[in-house]
Design a protein that fits this description.
Length: about 625
Amino acid sequence: MSERDEPVLPRATDRRGPTPSADRIPLDRVEAVLIEHYPRLLRLAYLTLPDDRGRHRRVLDAHRVVQRALPRLARTVRVDPEADVYAWLRTRIVRAALSAGTLRGVPAVVGLRLFPQAGGVAELELDRSLSVMAPAVRAAYALLVLEGLPDAEAARVTDDPEAVRSAHALRERLGADGERALTSTEFDPCVVQTTPDDLLRRRRNHRLTAAACSLAVLTGCVALTAQLMRPAPTTPADPAAGPRAASAALDPRHLVRTGPESWADTSRVDLTAWPARGSLAGDEGLLARALLVWSHPAASVRRLVAPGATDEGPARPPQLLYAGELEGRRIVLFYDGRRTVRYTEPARSGTGGAALDIARADGSGVTDASALVLVRGPSSARYLLAPWISESGLRDLRAPDRFPDPLRTDGGVTPPVPLPPDKGCGAWPALQLRSSSRIVENHRFLLTDLGGTALAHLTYQPLPGSGKKPRAAARPVEATGRDALLAWSATSCTLPELDAGVRAVNSWDFAGQRLPGGGGGTWTCVRADAWQGPGQVVAGMRPGTGRPLLRSGTERGTAACSRFGQHVVASVIYRDKDGNRYLLAAGSRGVTQLTAAGQTVAGTTLVVRNPTSTAVEARTRTGQVLTPPGTG
C-alpha cells in the first residue's frame, strides 16, 4: 500500500464508539486510537518481529513498526460505517512486523542499550518456545492470547491459517503459565532498562543533537521515561572499565574465554586461568539470558549476594568459567576479576525459578580458587574443580585414620558430594585435592563446603616448640598430615557455628596442658577468615583424641588468633573421671602470667579446683592484658 493511498478500514466495531456515517475518517482520529493503544500494539509488534536480532534491536524495530502504521501523506482514510479503527491498525502493524527485515531509519538511542526486564521461570520457558517458532506463529499466539481473536480473524490478520493451528498447539503446551507470562514486562518494550553504550565514539561522530531527537520517538510509552532515568550501575572499583566495555558486557560473543592449557603456562594460577567448560558453553541464548539477568534481575529472580560482595551488573565482558546442565538446572558461571556470579534456570525437566548468586573471589589463589559450587541440593552438592587439580578425594574429618574415597570427575565436575550437617558433630565431608606437579610438587590440601560459592580452605597450625625460650609460632600448613587430621577431627564440630562468607579456616594449637586425673589436653583456637576481612574465632580445649572441643568462647570481628593477634587466652570448666570440677586456663606462647579465682601463677597454664569464679585474665611479656574470646 502506498502512503499516498487512502487505506480502507475493515468492517468491525470501533473500540472508541460508533464511527460517523461518512466514508472517511480523519487521520487524527486514527492517530488518537494509535496513541491510546500504543503499548498494546507495541507488544504485538515486538512479539511478531523475527527472532534474528538482539533485544535492543527488537525494541527499536517494534517502535518503528508501530509509528509507521499511520500513512504520512493521507489526511483521511476511507472506512465503512461500522469499521473498527483499532482492528485496522492491528492488522497493519502485525503484517508490517511479519514482513520486516532490517528496518531503515529506526529510532536510534545513542549512548544507551535498551532491554525489556528479565522475568522468571515462566517467562524463560515462553521465551525459549517462541524463539524457535516462525514469526507468523508468534503473531497468531499473541493474537489468540492477548487479543482474544477467533481463529478465522487471527488467520486473516496473519494471512496464515497453518500458523494459527501451530499457535493453538503452543498454547495448549504452555498452558495458563504461558498466557500469564505473555503479559509480563519481559515482553513489554514499553518498560525497558538501560545500560551505557560507547559514549566515546558518540562524542566523536558529532551527532548528539540528532540522537536526542531520535530518542524522542520512543515517548509513546510513559514507562520508558522513568526507566531511562535509572541507568545500570558501572563498577567503581574498576577504573579501566568504561562505556564501551559496559556495552559489550551483555554480548555473549565478547565473553572472555581462557585456553584449556593456560593454567600450566602462567605465573598467575587463579580463576583467570580457568578455561570455559561445560556442554552449553556455546549456547549464546543461555549466556545472553544469564548476562541480562545479572545486569537487570527481575523481582521474580531469587538473588543471593554474599557478605562483602556488590550486586552491580558487569562493567566489562566477564570471563566464562562454565555453562552446562546438571540436576535439572542450566548453570552459567562467570568471573569478573572480583566476583563469581552463578546463574541458574530450570532445564526443561527441572523445577523452580531462575536464581543468581554473587560472591567475592578477589585475591584467590591455588587453593581457594580450586573448587566452586555448581549446584547445591538439600543433601548434596556438585562442584567444578580447577583445571590444575590432578587428584581428588572425599574424606570425613571425623574419621582421621580413614583414607579418602576417590572422586571421579567428568570435565572437572564432581559427582554429588554429601553436604556437612547444619548442626551437631556427625560426619563432616571435605575434599582432599592434589595440585598438578606441573605447577607445584606434592601439594595436597583440604576444602569444605560452608555454604559459599567457593569452598573454604582448611589449614592447621601446630604447637610451638618447647624449651626455655619459647620459639616463634609455627606457620599454618595444609591440614593433610596426621596431627592436622587428628586436630580437625575434634575442631570440625565448630564449623557449623561459623558465619557465612568464610574463605579459610585455621585450627591453631597454641598450648598443651596436663589434665587433672591424668592425660593431656590441647588448647586450640579455630579462626575463620571471611572474604571481606573480619574474622571469627572459637577457642577451647581438646581433652583427648577424638573427643569434641570443650568450648571456651567465641568472638566475631577480631584479629585474635591471626598473625595480627598472636596472643590469646582461653578457659573451660573440666570434670575428671571422678566428677571433680576444675577451672582450666591456658595462654599462647607470649603469656607469662595467669589470674583466676583469686590465684595468680606464672607461665601459660593454670588449674583451679572447685573455682568460686570463672573469670580469667592473662598478661604477656609486654604487659598486654588478655581475656578469653567473648568475655572482653
